[in-house]
């Protein structure tokens, strides 16, 4: 019999794998997810008895991860450039949020996550406003535009990293460069 800690670790690993699988194939079956996660379908079903439960757990994890990153940023008294660098360094949950929960919640069957996703996005926009008020980020564009840009850049960087077109350590630097300096030379 597996311990609770072992099951939680296995579940976390499966969620990570499932997120990558579903990013590329929204309709992936439990069998496909299990194979790509390197586990048996029986093990996957023991951890998540239905695809709906797997998707709900994935959405919760993504939202929880975003909440943790934002909580640290919202209470941080460091200079805004450092706060932004921290959020950008932990861009993956925002990429996943944008990819799965915020943009297309119905695709994965978790519409109840939409409200929480909107709250996370609102907090992200508030963080951007803080950057605008500090003079770090341009203030000639709405904070929601810049927050959406961050999420879109995060999603692109995450996908390129998954596909092997970008290194995981490059992604935050590239996101930061575009946010702070645009695409100009």
TrEMBL record:
Keywords: DNA-binding, Transcription, Transcription regulation. The keyword Plastid does not apply. It comes from the Bacteria. Residues 8-66 form the HTH tetR-type domain. Residues 29-48 bind DNA. SUPFAM superfamilies: Homeodomain-like, Tetracyclin repressor-like, C-terminal domain. Gene3D superfamilies: Tetracycline Repressor, domain 2. GO terms for molecular function: DNA-binding transcription factor activity; transcription cis-regulatory region binding. InterPro entries: Homeodomain-like_sf (IPR009057), HTH-type_TetR-like_transc_reg (IPR050109), HTH_TetR (IPR001647), Tet_transcr_reg_TetR-rel_C_sf (IPR036271). PANTHER family: HTH-TYPE TRANSCRIPTIONAL REGULATOR BETI (PTHR30055:SF234), HTH-TYPE TRANSCRIPTIONAL REGULATOR RUTR (PTHR30055). This is TetR/AcrR family transcriptional regulator. It comes from Streptomyces sioyaensis.
